[in-house]
């Protein structure tokens, strides 16, 4: 009897083991029984990454033992509230879906400081001129003092008091010279030498620095010239003629290795893209708008530019795309733009347009945060930082609420936002 009982007990243990072992293994692998649907399904996971690192993670108000960056495993399929917190930073919350056997990514999370400290640098201006590296901007205050703000050092430098209220036009590529204009007369200012030099070329329509810092390109009497700023003029007393297309040139600019000109012929307006060195024509685009030319991208296959109130996107293998806009900025393959009442993201490579918001109020400004996952908008004098991730709600941070005219510049990491108003020059520490 006792021997039989032992056999039954051992057998029962074996049976129980063979039943429980697969169940425990399945459980450890994330499989669960869904009582609502009457089936077995595998759990999913969150992958969470934040800047700064080391933030707390809560799923449905339950704290995870790990901090960012990490994977949160064995999360039941369905919608869950994901919350990211860190001391002194505003929290981030979003409802996200978990799918069976899949990982849901939340890896573009930036936490911004709750207390965004304001630091005043000095007097202000209504305009600034950003250099090519986007790490310094120059401006003239009401006393005609030329000042330069270094956004990486978070410092302002008083360079010189000038004799009149010049218009700041262009930085040289070495960041050592600034091109200024007074009417149709141009001047160069050497920052190190603190010396203002008149450029002896009268009645110039437009002038810019070439990619190197020794040459200037200028438009005069329908002809485009190159002036070697540090060299003597040629024997005829003129600069070298660069381009004469025998049409009325309205505007021109340099973008990387490309010369872009806008001209009128036979009552039609054209854009021409040329190799700056060889002057070989890459492409010609007709039926464009008149207006100030701003080239956002120039490559072998793509040319993206604005003229007045229109954005033009031209791939040499595709038809021209024209979009009405008031402001447009490029980050990678994404264009952030507004037509005054809508904020739109357009992926020019995939030809995909995403309407972010439609408003009755005027959108005065939009521009990218340096990480490309957030953007800033100015609406009704409210300056707001908004995330691009449109799953559930878009988290946002109100940065400013005042009616003063503002110019904005981020440092390269997006930790400080510099703001120039007619009254003052200051920055906000936001990360």
Helix content: under 10%
Tally of helical runs: 1
Strand order of the largest sheet: 5-4-7-8
Give a short account of the largest sheet: 4 strands, antiparallel
Beta content comes to: over 45%
Low-confidence stretches: 20-33, 232-237
Shape descriptor reads globular
Nearest-integer average pLDDT: 88
Strand tally is 41
Kindly name the structural category.
mainly beta
Supply Rg.
Answer: 30 Å
End-to-end separation in angstroms reads 77 Å
Protein topology:
Blueprint: H1 2-28, E1 31-34, E2 39-42, E3 44-51, E4 56-59, E5 62-63, E6 70-75, E7 78-85, E8 92-98, E9 103-110, E10 118-123, E11 129-130, E12 136-140, E13 145-150, E14 155-161, E15 167-171, E16 177-182, E17 185-190, E18 195-199, E19 206-209, E20 215-220, E21 223-228, E22 240-243, E23 248-255, E24 258-265, E25 268-275, E26 281-286, E27 293-298, E28 302-307, E29 310-315, E30 321-324, E31 327-331, E32 334-338, E33 342-347, E34 352-358, E35 363-368, E36 374-379, E37 382-387, E38 396-401, E39 407-410, E40 416-420, E41 424-429
Can you describe what's shown?
- The chain is mainly β and 431 residues long.
- The chain is built from 1 helix and 41 strands.
- A 4-stranded antiparallel β-sheet has the order 5-4-7-8, with no helix packed on it. It has a 4-stranded antiparallel β-sheet with strand order 10-41-40-39, with no helix packed on it. A 4-stranded antiparallel β-sheet has the order 11-12-13-14, with no helix packed on it.
- Mean pLDDT is 88; it is low at 20-33 and 232-237.
């Amino acid at each position: 009897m006792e021997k039989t009982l032992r056999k039954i007990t051992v057998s029962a243990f074996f049976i129980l083991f063979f039943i429980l072992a697969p169940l425990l293994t399945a459980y450890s692998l994330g499989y669960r029984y869904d009582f609502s649907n009457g089936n077995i399904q595998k759990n999913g996971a969150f992958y969470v990454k934040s800047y700064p690192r080391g933030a707390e993670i809560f799923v449905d108000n339950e704290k995870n033992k790990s901090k960012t960056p990490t994977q949160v495993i064995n999360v039941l399929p369905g919608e869950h509230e994901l919350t990211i917190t860190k001391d002194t930073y505003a929290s981030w919350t979003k409802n996200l879906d978990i799918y069976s056997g899949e990982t849901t990514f939340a890896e573009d999370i930036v936490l911004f400081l709750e207390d965004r400290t304001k630091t005043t640098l000095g007097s202000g201006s209504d305009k600034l001129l950003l250099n090519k590296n986007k790490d310094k901007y120059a401006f003239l205050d009401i006393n005609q003092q030329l000042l330069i703000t270094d956004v990486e050092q978070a410092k302002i430098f008083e360079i010189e008091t000038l004799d009149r209220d010049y218009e700041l036009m262009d930085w040289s590529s070495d960041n050592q010279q600034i091109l200024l204009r007074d009417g149709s007369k141009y001047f160069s200012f050497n920052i190190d030498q603190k010396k203002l030099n008149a450029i002896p070329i009268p009645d110039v329509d437009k002038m810019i620095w070439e990619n190197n810092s020794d040459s200037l390109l200028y438009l005069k009497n329908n002809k485009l010239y190159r002036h070697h700023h540090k060299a003597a003029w040629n024997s005829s007393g003129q600069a070298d003629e660069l381009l004469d297309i025998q049409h009325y040139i309205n505007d021109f600019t340099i973008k990387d290795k490309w010369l872009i000109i806008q001209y009128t012929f036979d009552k039609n307006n054209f854009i021409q893209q040329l190799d700056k060195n060889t002057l070989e024509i890459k492409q010609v685009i007709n039926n464009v708008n008149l207006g100030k030319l701003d080239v956002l991208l120039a490559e072998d296959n793509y040319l993206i530019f604005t003229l007045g109130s229109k954005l033009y996107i031209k791939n040499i293998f595709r038809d021209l795309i024209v979009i009405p806009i008031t402001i447009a900025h490029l980050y990678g393959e994404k264009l952030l733009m507004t037509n005054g009442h809508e904020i739109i993201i357009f992926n020019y490579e995939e030809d995909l347009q995403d309407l972010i918001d439609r408003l009755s109020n005027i959108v005065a400004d939009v521009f990218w945060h340096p990480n490309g996952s957030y953007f800033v908008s100015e609406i009704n004098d409210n300056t707001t930082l908004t995330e691009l991730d449109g799953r559930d709600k878009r988290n946002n941070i109100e940065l400013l609420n005042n009616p003063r005219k503002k110019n904005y510049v981020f440092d390269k990491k997006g930790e400080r936002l510099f703001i120039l108003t007619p009254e003052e020059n200051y920055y906000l520490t936001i990360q």
